[in-house]
């Protein structure tokens, strides 16, 4: 099964062209954020005195004062954001609508399939390949500059778009 679903923002305006056979083709880059959680452990050397030291259960007396020394590990969960870039191609009416209504920064949902393109590099003669997304459906989630909040609070029919 070859199905891919992505939600991201257009990295540039779609490039719309028409083939000799009359089929519309739109190409654009899609930026998809990926949030990775990284666990970091910070170590601290702690020294405490008096009653606090005695409450640790492991302390020693130095000059009549209770002293406890120990290491403390604190786990920290940091979220790192990585952006993955995909080259997307769509055809027909989907391409026409994408080219007409979408601009750099628009958030879209893509449904399609992965496609591996192969060719021979003319300069080096080496075989090359890249994986792209052939979109069968492009759902317009925002226009350029709109936030997600705007879309959630605005009914779909208020957009005035023909879908």
Tell me what the CATH architecture of the largest domain is. Beta Barrel
Tally of DSSP helical segments: 3
Helicity range of the residues?
10-25%
Number of domains: 2
Which class do the helix and strand fractions yield?
mainly beta
Low-confidence stretches: 147-163
**Principal-axes shape call:** elongated
Characterize the largest beta sheet: strand count, sense, and whether it forms a barrel: 5 strands, mixed, barrel
CATH C-level of the largest domain: Mainly Beta
Radius of gyration: 28 Å
List how many beta strands DSSP finds.
Answer: 7
Fraction in beta strands? over 45%
The N- to C-terminal Cα distance equals 28 Å
What strand line-up does the widest sheet have?
A: 1-3-5-7-6
The CATH topology annotation of the largest domain reads as OB fold (Dihydrolipoamide Acetyltransferase, E2P)
Q: Which features characterize this protein?
A:
163 residues, five-stranded mixed beta barrel, 13% helix, disordered C terminus
Structure notes:
The chain has 163 residues and is mainly β. The chain contains three helices and seven strands, in the order βββαββαββα. A five-stranded mixed β-barrel has the order 1-3-5-7-6. The longest helix has 10 residues, at 92-101. It is elongated. The relative contact order is 0.22.
Short description:
The protein is 13% helix and 58% strand. The chain is mostly beta strands.
């Amino acid at each position: 099964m070859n199905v891919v679903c992505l939600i991201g923002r257009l990295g540039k305006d779609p490039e719309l062209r028409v083939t000799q056979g009359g089929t519309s083709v739109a190409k654009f880059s899609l930026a998809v954020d990926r949030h990775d959680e990284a666990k970091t452990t910070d170590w601290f050397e702690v020294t405490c005195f008096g009653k606090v030291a005695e409450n640790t259960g492991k302390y020693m007396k130095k000059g009549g004062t209770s002293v406890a020394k120990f290491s403390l590990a604190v786990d920290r969960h940091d979220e790192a954001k990585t952006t993955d870039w995909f080259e997307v191609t769509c055809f027909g009416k989907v391409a026409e609508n994408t080219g007409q209504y979408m601009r750099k920064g628009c958030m879209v949902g893509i449904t399609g399939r992965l496609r591996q393109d192969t060719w021979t590099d003319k300069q080096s003669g080496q075989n090359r390949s890249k994986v792209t997304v052939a979109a069968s459906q492009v759902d317009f989630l925002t226009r350029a500059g709109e936030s997600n909040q705007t879309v959630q609070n605005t009914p779909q029919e208020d957009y005035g778009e023909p879908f």
